[in-house]
Specification:
Keywords: DNA-binding, Sigma factor, Transcription, Transcription regulation. This protein has 185 residues and is mainly alpha-helical. The chain has 8 helices and no strands. It is globular and about 65 Å long.
Amino acid sequence: MTATGFGPSLAGRRDEEFAEFVSTRSGWLRKVAYLLTGDWHRADDLAQATVTKLYVRWHRLGGVENVDGYARQTLVNSFLAERRSPWARVLLGRGENGGDGPPPVVPQPDLDAVLDLRRALAELPPRQRATVVLRYFCDLTVEQTAETLGCTPGTVKSQTARGLDALRRVLTPDSEPTATGGGTS
C-alpha cells in the first residue's frame, strides 16, 4: 500500500467487491431488464450498460446504504433514457429483431398465462411498465418506486393504476360473464 492509502490493495478490494456484487445480482438485473424491455437481447444490453455505469461509480458507492436500490434505479433510468432517445425510435420501430427475417426462435417453457402477461406488459408505455415492474416484480413500496423514478408518490399511484387497468383490459377475455353465481343445480 502506498503512503496515501490508495495502493493496489484498495483498488483490488474494490474490484473484488464489485465482482461479487455483479456475480450475485446479474441474474436479477437481467430479469428486471427483460420485464422492462420484453426482449432478452435488449435486456442483456441494458443490464450490461447498468453494470458498466455501476463500475464507473463503484468507488463512490461506499456510503450508499442500499446498493441494490441504486443498481435498480440506474437500470430503470437507463431504460427510460433509451426509450426517449431518437435512436430508439428507429431501432425499436422496426420490431424486436430489427426487421431482418423471421423472428428468432426461442424455446419458451413458460405457461400460456405468463406469455400473455409478458405480451401485455410489453404493450404498456415505458413509464407505466417501469412502475408496474418496480411495484410488483421488485416489490417496492410506492415511496421507494417514486424515489427510483424521481417522481411523486401520486404519480406512481396513477401510473400503477393506469398500467394495471391496461393489463386487465388486455388479459380479461371479453366472453367472460361479469355476473357471478346463479346457475342451475
